[in-house]
DNA sequence: CCCATTTGACCGCC
DNA sequence: GGCGGTCAAATGGG
């Protein structure tokens, strides 16, 4: 089975499971926060499922949705949710065909350039019809390691606090593969810079700074457009990946806390970014965004790992999920 | 001094 | 010719 279909199934299953959890939490004793958490998870599953369909050429219109978060006065989740508009665009490929490009919108109150990679700006252009110039960046390791990753950043006209980030190419540098795989921030530079004593500490420092920003960047969200210059199977193992790796870890972290079997079921898009198309991470950003308070609490306080459930979610209740086994989500023919 | 950014020039495509 | 994208010299910061 295609991994996309697996992902789709996983997302739908997860949506089903979380819906069941939510049902359990409809009782008055459950907290609003818990219900929000579950609602958001459901929405994210739907978003991911829709994205998968989108990517496979289905015409799926995604529109801003309303969630319980809008009733939350403390956090502006409404903007996040309404910004999770994944738009597919066609672009020409080198072979003359078209290729889908997904646009995810969001807001970044933080530095939109901090996505875990080291970028070097090589140009800036005023774009016709846009109020703000477009910045052109390429991977710092372009020359030392031949990394061809490129990104373009442009402030949104409609919402100047919004940035559209468009990625092209894939990271082939060490930084990409390692930062995607582990938390180890940076690798030794290639020998040509070995005589530079200050280089490494500087990059380490910078990298750690970037890592710190990753969550906040995705809390607020970014408008991210991805596009690869190569073939589809080449799509960005890396692109997602300092970013997504953080998210994956966070998700795994959350999932582990929430009894992996229940909330687990991570889609391949999450688990195996190296084999995924580039674009699913943005959906997970909504995931992240809505979990922000929980995650930041958990992450900032290691002691909470073992003895603190997420918010006040009743983990024990998650052990006994109930859902209608007759619902044909598991049947591949359901989707044919 | 090295490196990243800035910015005007240049290039290729439509 | 106009536009988007890239190059590369100039500039500035650490």
Description:
Belongs to the WRKY group III family. Its main location: nucleus. It is found in: Nucleus. With 336 residues, the protein is an alpha+beta fold. α7 crosses α10 (281-300). The protein is elongated and about 55 Å long. Strands 1-2-7-6-5-4-3 form a seven-stranded mixed beta sheet, with no helix packed on it. The chain is built from twelve helices and seven strands. β3 and β4 form a beta hairpin. Among the domains are: 1-56; 99-168, Single Sheet (N-terminal domain of TfIIb). The protein binds a DNA duplex (14 and 14 nucleotides) through residues 120-125, 127-128, 134, 136, 138, 140, 152, 196, 198-199, 202.
């Amino acid at each position: 089975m295609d991994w996309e279909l697996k992902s789709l199934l996983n997302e739908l299953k997860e949506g089903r499971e979380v819906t069941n959890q939510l049902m359990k939490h409809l009782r008055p004793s459950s907290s609003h926060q818990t219900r929000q958490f579950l609602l958001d998870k459901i929405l994210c599953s739907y978003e991911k499922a829709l994205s998968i369909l989108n990517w496979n050429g289905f015409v799926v219109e995604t529109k801003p949705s309303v969630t319980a978060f809008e009733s939350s006065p403390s956090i502006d989740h409404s903007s996040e949710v309404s910004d999770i508009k994944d738009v597919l665009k066609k672009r020409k490929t080198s072979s003359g065909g078209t290729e889908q490009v997904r646009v995810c919108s969001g807001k970044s109150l933080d530095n939109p350039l901090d996505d875990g990679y080291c970028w070097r700006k090589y140009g800036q252009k005023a774009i016709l019809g846009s109020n703000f110039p477009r910045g052109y960046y390429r991977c710092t390791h372009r020359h030392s390691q031949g990394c061809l990753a490129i990104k373009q950043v442009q402030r949104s006209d409609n919402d100047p606090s919004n940035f559209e980030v468009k990625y092209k190419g894939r990271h082939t540098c060490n930084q990409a593969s390692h930062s995607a795989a582990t938390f180890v921030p940076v690798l030794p530079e290639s020998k040509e810079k070995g005589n530079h004593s200050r280089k490494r500490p500087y990059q380490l420092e910078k990298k750690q700074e970037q890592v710190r920003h990753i969550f906040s960047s995705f809390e607020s969200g970014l408008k991210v457009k991805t596009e690869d210059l190569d073939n589809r199977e080449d799509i960005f193992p890396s692109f997602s990946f300092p970013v997504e790796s953080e998210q994956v870890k966070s998700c795994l972290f959350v999932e582990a806390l929430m009894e992996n079997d229940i909330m687990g079921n991570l889609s391949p898009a999450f688990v195996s970014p190296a084999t995924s198309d580039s674009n699913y991470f943005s959906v997970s950003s909504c995931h992240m965004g809505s979990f922000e308070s929980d995650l930041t609490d958990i992450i900032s306080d290691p002691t909470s790992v073992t003895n603190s459930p997420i918010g006040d979610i009743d983990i024990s209740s998650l052990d006994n999920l109930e859902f209608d086994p007759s619902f044909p989500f598991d049947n591949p023919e359901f989707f044919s």
